[in-house]
Model the fold of this input.
Amino acid sequence: MARHIYVHNPFCARKCPYCDFYSVTDNFLCEEFYKAAIKETELIGSVITEDAGTNPLTDPDGKDTVYFGGGTPTVPDSRYICELLGAVRKAFNIASDAEITIEANPSSVTPEKLTEYRQAGFNRISLGVQSLDDEVLKTLGRLHDSKGAIEALKKISEAGFTNISSDLITGVPGETLDGIKRDIGTFKELGVKHISTYSLSIEEGTEFYRRYSGNIEDLVSPELERSMYHGTREYLQKLGYETYEISNSALPGYKSIHNSSYWNSCEYFAIGAGAHGFLNDLRYGHRDDVRAYIEEMNTVTYDTYKAFLEGNESFLKSLYVEERLTREDKMREVPFLRLRTTDGILLDEFKKVFGVEFEDVFADAVKTNLEKGLLERKERTLRLTRSGLDLANIVIEDFL
Ligand code: SF4
Done:
């Protein structure tokens, strides 16, 4: 039975002005942080039982996954990353056919680092390209230019990675659909198998929020952003990338198994400051505080950590329980997570897990959205229509 592990690497070379992920730019705490992360990994490994974090009913892919996200995992010394992956593989007894991903940035990958990652067991890499238009990259405040991104993709292939993902941001002021299409074509030529496309969102607390919140006319209009989204999706399909989730498209055989595990309500372990996990009906998180994390992991004991994972959060400062899910909460999470996917809600799966029909539990929301043409029913699945995709958040709210 499969296990899923997310590791948050909270270090970046510089803070991008639109980013609200947790990361710090003072990397002098790296060594202590990775020691602490190894300690946490070993603690979890000694606490968990054979079946903990496995989901035979809801895990269609059935493969272990490990995901090193961030922050930028390619910023710290590769030695720390490879040692931590070694500890994760050992503690969780990760299978040899697991999907093991590392996020990377074009400005921090080198042939040497990439070779070390491959040797340590990473077999999938996700490169934060965002755009191959130098003006757009400047607006986004990225450290790389298009030439650097293309060189990084070549280095990644040369190091032996075949499962390569790249990110694109759409809706950036000055960006065009033609430019996005050109970027996708270049990705295809360079062997990129999976493309994530995210619409630029202006999050509170970011530099972009300060820059744009009062000047909304400087941004791409919602109509143009939507037409870019659909144009991008059509072009991805033309080049053979199947969109399997609102933001994710892949060539056949290259969907992200790790991300799919989230949309399938699988449990997953979290390691590192800023990481979030789901275990024993508990959505839990690590506070966005590298120092507090290091201090805690230096002192935490087996018993305390075990008590936390069993639902008793009172002894820990850097970890906290976000939410304890009831059966009703878990049922509500199904439309919340599954309507983002193009497979939609699998009605037989829902019945198997909860023992009731989805359409009985959510009768009103299903009826209303079918009538509005925002949902469609195909045999034993329910999914968003094309117009439903544009109003996904509003449809999902009807189920909450
Ligand atoms: S590199 Fe990624 S994680 Fe780091 S600040 Fe930029 S967008 Fe955020």
Remarks:
- The longest helix spans residues 30-47.
- The first strand starts at residue 4 and ends at 9.
- The pocket of iron/sulfur cluster is lined by residues 12, 15-16, 19, 21, 23, 70-72, 105, 128 (CB under 6 Å).
- The CA atoms of residues 193 and 253 lie 9 Å apart.
